[in-house]
Design a protein that fits this description.
Number of domains of chain A: 2
Largest interface: A-B, 130 and 130 residues
Largest sheet of chain A: 8 strands, mixed
Number of helices of chain A: 12
Number of strands of chain A: 19
Oligomer: homodimer
Helix content of chain A: 25-40%
Strand content of chain A: 25-35%
Distance between the termini of chain A: 41 Å
Radius of gyration of chain A: 26 Å
CATH class of the largest domain in chain A: Alpha Beta
CATH topology of the largest domain in chain A: BirA Bifunctional Protein, domain 2
CATH superfamily of the largest domain in chain A: Bira Bifunctional Protein, Domain 2
Shape of chain A: elongated
Structural class of chain A: alpha+beta
Chain lengths: ~450, ~450
């Protein structure tokens, strides 16, 4: 019997610890052998650690092991002397004295050249060898940025009085409509995977006022595009007691400002690795759907084909317009036509052909859909009836409204898409750890 | 066109804001009408707000509205004068002057008596009316505690150099074996819902060294017990470069200590509402599986029926033993028999009938399974073969090991179960927002 009392400081140092260590001191470090450059009498052993690369220097006679004992892709622990060297990553290197091999690969011929700065490999190969391709520093940095976006979302909303919730992903029926659902057998009953936590988070507004969830959603959409996934991570919030639907956009703006500050502060190394310039989110323009469609048509000489929806090319042009005219990488497009929004969307009382809803476009692509929702029980039932929908499966949802709900609204952000546009990638699979699409179900 | 610049301070105050306001000041607040107690010339209107209850006082003549304009379950905004009153919740009340009704229920007869302190209703009724039952203060407080546990998990691990990951829930095959899987049709291909992120998080140790995920997992287990769900939230971490499997237990101990401190600090009101005494996690005993089985058999005069597993009753007795002998609500049980652990578990080199793995028991129930994993490619292949398993579907997993992996291990915590034991509940559905079990797929 022993007692565990918490985490003990390790005798091995991470890079941040090494940077605080004086030159000449003896240190212990571990890592994966990223590359070995053998220059004859001296060799550089580059270790890959979670905080970046670290240079080990091997000199014959100075170490008590043979360089041949060391192979690329080994995971090792080394003891040595810390030295300053401006040319080395981080300005430090370790003169290697002693080696312990922790893990040895069965095969040190990597299927992909992960130690190259840019992994110039096909997306297909990167996805087929996901556990290897992500060992490349630039590849993995994208997912650190993604972490920052999620972390900021939660931290910001905790600070704004939101409660985190976990809603079920398996359900008897879909939250938002019949199409594009994955269906499964649930102990001999038909069930579906939820496309969104929408109806659940609305019900929880009646409980916690403000709620959020960061969780997977599932869409059985059959299109194979660069911007769609069949499973993705949705950053959702829903807030009650709003004075207007602008308040929802203000909350999202606050989040984005917070996220950009967190990235600039805590993820500076990854931003540099990826050469990302963070967008300025100090003020985000909001413009009506019908208005911006006309502005864009006029400025860029483009005919409006579909007055009720935005085509991908129009999203690009609206973003271009926002950048040129208002100097913003972000733009809220408000008042979407009612017929293109789900039944729970609040119609604009001033003109019920439109809704109090919005999309947020970022660098040419929609990354958020949001808006105010209907909170009156009668109005909700009328809208359901007017759409020719049934109330089947909505009983519990309607029950919340029957017993009082405050004015409310919220958003959903596609995490992988936000990451993609921030990292300057043109395919969403580049910023998805293990993408699921029409053809890809593995790894 | 307008610009969004972030969140503006609202003119309505939350309870924390009211507590900082001087008596006699005019204030605006919103909330849901929890109860109205009409005493004749004066009435008490109790508002339910996200931070708790707030007392409004209605006096005829003092307000510009009629009490009859107000109904239970209304969501309202009121203007009035803040007064101190020791007998009111939080020691403050609002003398109501002006009323705005924000949302009106279609029916103010609640299906459940949510304004009672304890909702003495059957679990069935609470689950059938989930959006209503959770409006009860004690019911909702449990999910605030649950938030604290998740939030602490992430915050603690961020601080320990972990990276958050999002692994896919739909897969071609299961991560851990064939049984108990929900099966679905994925564009005419068979697919399953993942039981755990196990193999993915291990692969990601080769990329980020330390990773965690907080996400749903799916288990098609056919037993209907008080401690099992078919969908639950798993708090998973996996860490590389460990010196021993004790390091994993130390990390979990550090998390629990951090979580208890966060709850004591930020969730004190909810702890009080639920009358929860936080366990002391300063030191957690760890004892071998075979040893504690014997100790318990001896002390409590119980025969060992199955030497390879713990029965629920044994878990209870081990917890009782740990409390009586070592004064701890937690106890790690280590070195589980190899035959009861999955193929990836690292056998104890000192006696390969046992593994370098553990469960954490808390107040009579297992809330965590963890352990060191095999990191050597050959050893892993041998174990797979020895188990009579096929490598089909494990190709990408094995690829990570073929190209070098450090010694590593990790844990999975059942969030709802942890919450259940902390809140002193005896059914896991009490601490699950929308439980999924053999018979329940709605709401």
């Amino acid at each position: 019997m022993e007692f565990l009392t918490g985490v003990k400081e390790k005798d091995t140092l991470e890079i941040s610890g090494l940077l605080k260590t004086e030159a000449g001191e003896s240190v212990k470090v571990n890592g994966a052998v990223h590359t070995i450059r053998n220059m004859g009498t001296v060799a550089f052993v580059i270790l890959r650690k979670r905080e970046g690369l670290l240079q080990g220097v091997y000199e014959e006679g100075a170490a008590d092991f043979d360089l041949k004992d060391l192979r690329e892709a080994d995971t090792i622990e080394i003891e040595g002397i810390l030295e300053k060297n401006e040319k080395a990553p981080g300005g430090i290197e370790i003169r290697m004295k002693h080696l312990t091999v922790l893990g040895r690969p069965a095969d040190d011929m990597m299927p992909l050249p992960i130690s190259k700065w840019k992994l110039n490999t096909s997306l297909e190969a990167k996805l087929n060898y996901r556990s290897i391709s992500l060992r490349n520093l630039r590849e993995r940095a994208k997912f650190r940025i993604q972490e920052g976006l999620t972390r900021a979302f939660r931290d910001y909303l905790y600070g704004q009085g939101f409660t985190e919730i976990h809603t079920p992903k398996i359900g008897a029926r879909s939250a938002e409509g019949g199409a594009n659902l994955f269906r499964l057998d649930y102990f001999h009953r038909p069930a579906v995977l939820q496309q969104s936590p929408q109806l659940y988070k609305q019900m929880m507004v009646g409980v916690f006022d403000r709620v959020f969830e960061t969780a997977p959603v599932f869409r059985a959409e059959k299109h194979n595009t660069k911007r769609h996934l069949n499973e993705y991570t949705s950053l959702d919030f829903e807030m009650g007691y709003i004075d207007s639907f602008e308040e929802i956009m203000a909350m999202e703006t606050g989040y984005i400002q917070y996220a950009m500050a967190l990235l600039a502060g805590e993820y500076a190394a990854e931003l540099k690795t990826l050469d990302i310039t963070l967008p300025d989110a100090a003020k985000i323009p909001a413009v009506r759907f019908d208005e911006i469609k006309e502005k864009v048509a006029e400025k860029y000489g483009r005919k409006i084909k579909n007055p009720f929806d935005l085509e991908p090319e129009e999203e690009l042009l609206i973003s271009r317009y926002a950048l040129e005219e208002w100097g913003s990488d972000f733009v809220f497009v408000t008042h979407y036509p009612s017929r293109k929004r789900p039944f729970y969307a609040m119609d604009d009382p001033a003109d019920t052909r439109y809704t109090l809803s919005f999309d947020l476009l970022f660098r040419g692509m929609e990354i958020t859909t949001g808006g105010q929702r209907i909170h009156d029980h009668g109005m909700l039932k009328d809208k359901i009836a007017a759409r020719g929908m049934t109330e089947d499966g909505l009983e519990q949802y309607l029950e919340a409204f029957r017993h009082g709900m405050p004015p409310h609204g919220g958003i959903g952000i596609g995490l992988e898409r936000f990451t993609m546009k921030l990292a300057g990638e043109d395919n969403i699979r580049e910023t998805t750890l293990f993408p699921r699409d029409l053809s890809r179900l593995e790894p």
